[in-house]
Amino acid sequence: MKYQVPQFIGVESKIIGPLTLRQFIYISGGIGMVFILFKFLPFLFAALLSLPVIGFVGALSFYKVNSKPFINIVEFAVKFYTSSHLFLWRRDRKRAPVAATPATPVPTEMPASARLTRGKLHELAQTLDIKSDESINTSPQ
After folding, report:
1. Residue ranges in 63-117 assigned as alpha helix (H)
2. Which residue of 54, 60, 108, 138 has the smallest Cβ count within 10 Å?
3. Residue 130 and residue 134: Cα distance in Å, rounded?
4. Number of domains in the chain
5. Cβ neighbours of residue 11 under 8 Å, at least 6 residues apart?
6. Which pLDDT does position 128 carry in this prediction?
7. How many CB atoms neighbour CB 50 within 10 A?
């Protein structure tokens, strides 16, 4: 049997023109707040206070952070700043040291040839730079 799998279940429907219901509610609430500001305050104060309201409403309606709605960021910020924070660090002294298993022997002393000096490190870096530049510049024909 074949079943139809619903597509685009994470996409909100455009209900009121090009806006979703959530966007329409945010915008209408913002328009109402701006109307109240202009109704009860002098024009200059209302104009200055309405700019942040318009910006916030626009961000709530249309702005996304990492494909998450801006209201989630506001919610997390409010929770973060209103909750108390107590960070404690305690050293855990109960842990036993990890013993080496027979399958992975731990060398007691590093051979002199395996030590990396500043000159060897510089030479290795130049070699890697040259090889990576050659591989970038060389294209198959």
Report:
1. 70-82
2. 108
3. 6
4. 1
5. none
6. 78
7. 19
Model pTM score: 0.54
The CA distances from residue 70 to 59, 113, 139, in Å, are 7, 57, 45
Nearest to 64 by CA among 56, 55, 73, 77: 73
- Domain of 64 in residue numbering reads as 14-82
DSSP state of 114: G
| Helix, coil or strand: residue 44 | helix
Q: Is 93 within a domain?
A: no
Residue 130 lies in a domain: no
Interval 107-137: pLDDT, tens:
566 666 667 788 888 888 888 777 655 555 5
